[in-house]
Amino acid sequence: MKYLSIIVFVSIILSVHLITNYYIYTRGIQALEGFPKYKTLFSLFILILTIAYPLGRFLEHVWYNPISNSLHWMGAFWFAGMLYLTLLIALTDIIRLVNVSFSFLPPPHSIAYIKLKTITGISITCITLLIISLGFINAWNPKINRITLNINKNANNLDSLKIVAASDIHLGTIINTGKSQKLINTINGLNPDIILLAGDIVDEDVEPVIKHNLGKHLQQLKAKYGTWGITGNHEYIGGAERTVKYLEQHGIKILRDSSVLIDSAFYIVGREDREKTNFTGIPRKELIELSTHLDHTKPIILLDHQPWQLDKATQAKIDLQISGHTHHGQLWPFGFVTQHLFELSSGYLKKENSHFIVSTGFGTWGPPIRTGNRPEILAITLLFNKKE
Predict the structure, then answer these.
(1) Are residues 266 and 378 in the same domain?
(2) Which residues pair with 165 in a beta bridge?
C-alpha cells in the first residue's frame, strides 16, 4: 500500500509537470511565429529543462557528479520559471478570451498580431527572469525573527533562556557550503543558550551533504546546552537512519519521540515526523504519551516539524511548540494555500497557555528562490517566573 501511494503521488506530480511544460512550449512556439528558425532550438531548450530536475535527482542517487549537480540546479530554477511563466501566459490567454468579445487586438495572423505575440513573449520572459533573480537574492538574505515570551513556570535557577532555532535548512546540493556557513555564523553570532533545529535539516538524500562535507559546519555550532534537532519529512524521504547517524556524528543530538531534561531546568521534547508511519509502517508516539511522565512544573519545549493538530500540544500542556515545514508557501501565491491547510502557517499563536511558533524556514526546497516571504532564523527569549 505504501509503494502504491508513492507511485500514485509521483505519477500525479509528473503529469502536472509535463502538462505545464507542454503549455509553456505551445505558447512559446506561437510567440516565435515571426522567427520560425528558432523553433527547433526552443523545443530542445524546453525538453532539457523539462527533464533536468527529475533526471538530476535520479543521478544523484546513482552517482553524485558535476552533471547531476548541474541538472539539479537547472531544474530547480526552472520550477520557479514554470510557475511564473504559467501565471503570466494564463493572464495573456484571459486577455485573448476577452478579445473574442471586444476585438481590441490586431486581427489574427496579421503582421501587427505576429509582432504583438513576439513582444508579449519577450516581456513575459523578462518579467519571469526579474522575479526569479529577486527571489534568489531574497532567499540568500535571511532575517532574524526576535520573539520574547513569558513562561509562568519555575526553571530552576534560570531567569531566562535564549533559544536560537532554525527549521527547513535542506542541506544538500542547493543549500551547500556557502549558505550553510552563513547559517552557522549567524546562529553563533546570536550567542544562544541552546540551538534547536526543527526538522528537514537535510534535503532528502544525505549523499550531497557528505560530498560537500557540510558536517564540518554543523560542528561549529556553539551553545551552552548544545544543539538539538528532530526528523522532518525530508529526512524520511532520503532515509532517516543514515541521515540521523550522520547528524549525530557531527554534533546534532536528534530527539526521536523522546525528551531530555536540561540542567534540571526545562524539557526539550522531540517528535518523530508524522511521515514516519508512511515510510516505516511504525506510528510515532502520541504527544500525550511523550509528555505524561514529565514534571509539568518545569517549562516544556516541543519540537514538532509539521504544525498539525495544535490542540494536542495544548492538551499535553506544552509551553512552547516550534515547527516549520510550511515554508509559508515559499513561492507566491502558495502562501494562500498553506494558510488554508494549517491553523498556523507562519508566525506566532497562543492557545490557552501554550505558545506556538511556525518558522518560514532557513533554506529552500526545489527552487533556490523565495518570492512569498523571507527565510528566517528564530531568536526566542523565554522569561521564567519564579514561584516562591
Answers:
(1) yes
(2) 196, 378
Residue at a domain's end among 119, 138, 157: 138
Sequence letter at residue 90: A
pLDDT per residue over 252-277, tens digit each? 999 999 999 999 999 999 999 999 99
Give the CA distances from residue 16 to residues 20, 50, 94, 138, in Å, rounded to whole numbers and listed in that order. 6, 11, 21, 27
Distances 234 to 75, 205, 339, 346 between C-alpha atoms, Å: 19, 8, 21, 19
Q: Amino acid identity of 106?
A: P
Q: Judge if pTM exceeds 0.85.
A: yes
Structure-block grid coordinates of residue 327: 515554508
Q: Please check whether residues 157 and 266 belong to one and the same domain.
A: yes
Residue 257 domain boundaries: 144-384
Indicate the helix (H) or strand (E) that contains 196. strand 194-197
* Same domain, yes or no: 46 and 154: no
Angle between helices 111-139 and 66-102 (to 10 degrees): 130
Cβ-contact 164, 144 below 8 angstroms:
no
User: Are 154 and 247 contained in the same domain?
Assistant: yes
Instruction: Map residue 307 onto helix, strand or coil.
Output: coil
